[in-house]
Write a structure and sequence with these properties.
four-stranded antiparallel beta sheet
Amino acid sequence: MQQTFFKISKMDCPSEERLIRMRLEHLPFIRSLSFDLPNRLLTVHHSGDPARVLNELEPINLGTTLLGTGPSGDSLLPDTGQKERGLLWKVLAINFFFFALEMTTGLFSRSMGLVADSLDMLADAVVYGLALWAAGGTVSGKKKVARAAGCFQLLLAFAGLVELIRRFIQPEPVPVFQTMMLISFLALLGNSASFYLLHRNSSREAHMQASLIFTSNDVLANLGVIVAGALVWLTQSRYPDLIVGLLVFVLVFRGALKILSLSK
């Protein structure tokens, strides 16, 4: 068993990491891939010719350079996949639960901030579920699932933005700020628990780092809705809620575009 190190100068986000995985997963001699996004490094554990790996990576134009190859003992390659899948299942369950809670209470309290945040939670749940469900599938199967998930998320974001514009134009009652703040605080606790679980895992794999980033963004969105609820209370205006809802919907929309670009 050998390990080969590649410098990939344009690899700086999870989209590139997933693209590389799709390019390499059909090579039977590759045992595992280790990604270091901050340093733009890829370590491939394999038993075949590293030139074949380089030939697969060069067409995607991410600035790939082969740094070197050396022996790699099996003892250096612990199987952490099962542990990481368990963590992702927990985070997925938390995201889906709070999606349902925030969507229901957001509709009843007339809060677009809660509705938008619920769709952000659903978007993350879709990404986690996609990674878990398609883990053993073919490249074409993963692309189809990613495309379907991206289209679904894009449809949700578009529908939310249309409703948000309607509420900007037409008079609407002031949202129930108590519900906004209470439910967002509970979601903040859930996302904080997810962040703790992922951070404790301390994995350097890109998909786990991406999960950590997703959860930290959710924490910020929760704080934004709490602040919006306080501003609704102080001003007795619906506009703080609508503005926060708009910002969160933009995040959901951008996430959908990333998933669709990944499926190409």
